[in-house]
Amino acid sequence: MQADRNSLRLKNQLCFPIYLCSKEIIRRYAPLLKELDLTYTQYIVMMYFWEKKQSNMRDLGRALLLDPSTLTPLLVKLEVKGNITKAKSKLDGRNLDITITDKGAKLEKKSTLCTRGNERMRKLVRRRGKSAI
Predict the structure, then answer these.
(1) What is this structure's pTM?
(2) What is the C-alpha separation between 81 and 103, in angstroms, rounded?
(3) What angle do CA 57, 75, 23 make, to 5 degrees?
């Protein structure tokens, strides 16, 4: 019984430091992303489209491990901001084709502020991950 209780302590859980690192990364990105008018999840979607240029909702969801109920409001907001366009797929009307706009593509250059701090953030994550518990 004691062994079972010990296994449930935070210090013995891999998920807890990963959770803390994730929260810290998102917190550190927030001021940089504010300048881009993006949330962290919107930023991840935009990174996908900076690479792919166009895709469909099914492939986007698979690549980012996001389900349609999460993607739909995200894509609506990105479309309203003028960063993407979406239309019913001509091949499969149940799917959406999504394309990055010129405005969305221009955000990639502005986003270099976010990538400059990556090495500093990696060090922070390593340090926080070890000392979080």
Answers:
(1) 0.78
(2) 9
(3) 100
